[in-house]
Amino acid sequence: MKLKLKFLRPFKDIIGKSELELNIEVITILDLLKILVKKYPKLEKEIFKKNQELTDYICIFVNDKPISAINMLDTKLKEDDNLLFFIPVSGG
Asked: For residue 75, which of 35, 41, 66, 83 sits 20 to 30 Å off, Cα-Cα?
């Protein structure tokens, strides 16, 4: 399955580039995240809490649509999906 991934900071800094195109066999967001963490171990602290749940602040969009935090890890991926990973920033 071909996927296009785009990363904003801090993910971009850890991976060393803002975009990746992967040909991998994944079914869900969780499958993809495990592959990314295996390839880029420093991503783990930005993506997962100690109990392997997602951090509260990560945002993932699939094809320009935010995925639900409730079912985020179980979201199914399809050929040619475009994903965006980022952490929102706010100020006051």
From this structure: 41
